[in-house]
What we know:
Elements: H1 12-22, E1 31-36, E2 42-48, E3 54-59, H2 69-79, E4 84-89, H3 109-120, E5 125-131, H4 133-143, E6 153-159, H5 165-172, H6 178-198, H7 214-225, H8 231-238, E7 251-256, H9 270-273, E8 278-283, H10 299-311
Parallel strand pairs: 3-4, 3-5, 5-6, 6-7, 7-8
Antiparallel strand pairs: 1-2, 2-4
Amino acid sequence: MSYEPFxxxxxxxxxxxxxxxxxxxxQLSYNRERIYTHDEDFLDLDFVKNGHARVVILCHGLEGSxxxxxxxxxxxxxxxxxxxxxxxxxxxCSGEINLKPQxxxxxxxxxxxxxxxxxxxxxxEIYLAGFSLGGNLVLKYLGEHLFKRSAKIxxxxxxxxxxxxxxxxxxxxxxxxxxxxxxxxxxLNEKIKQKSNQFPALIDTxxxxxxxxxxxxxxxxxxxxxxxxxxEDYYEKCSSDQFLSSIKVPTLVINSKDxxxxxxxxxxxxxxxxxxxxxxxxxxxxxxxxxxxNGQHMWFENEILDFFVRSNK
Length: 313
């Protein structure tokens, strides 16, 4: 099914901003569970449990959380359709500072693996859905060879994915995207200040004044704090486009060609992917995790539900 919005929503910027700020979201009540990671940090997971045998793990985007509108909207729709929901909050995204110097990044799959293993104890089937950064995280996790992945994982969806992180970062540096960059850097820089108070010998805030882009932030902080040489080394090793050919479960990728966040390399052709299990849907319109349509649920949320139901038949 294609996405055909009415006139105003044929602008990627308008679709992205309106859906993020003004869409109405349904009611969704979470129950929080705290789990611990391999390195003795913690993750807060927000569940919607209705006694179903299958669960969807939702992975949010940069500086999002379980309270992001796309997380609530997707979770509410899946919950109404015989899925339990686990909305993952990355480190320092649940309202409480995490314990270790590292926070999270686009390729930090050990935490996702911890969540999958935690859910595997209670569910027969596991589905993964990621948005933006979370989409890259899901795809990398499914295609890399760091972990023995649970056979309970049945399908995955990734929405508005920066499949090539360097290309996406370059796109974000465009003048017309300065508002998005400002919003991201405002919260990221504040978190670095708090982490510096927590680890003053390790994290120096002197670089904050030099940061004008997400790439700058990744150069000074994301890269060094996570063992990468710089931003480009981080992007090269964590971009999910290189892992698509190795994915072993049905996977849907939805990217919009008018997404302000995505560069040209975020739209690989199917013959480049070389994997019949990976379904690429590149829409003309949609913006970044936008895809607005009238009603409580956005177009991409219905696509996620439909793909998971079809994949299980």
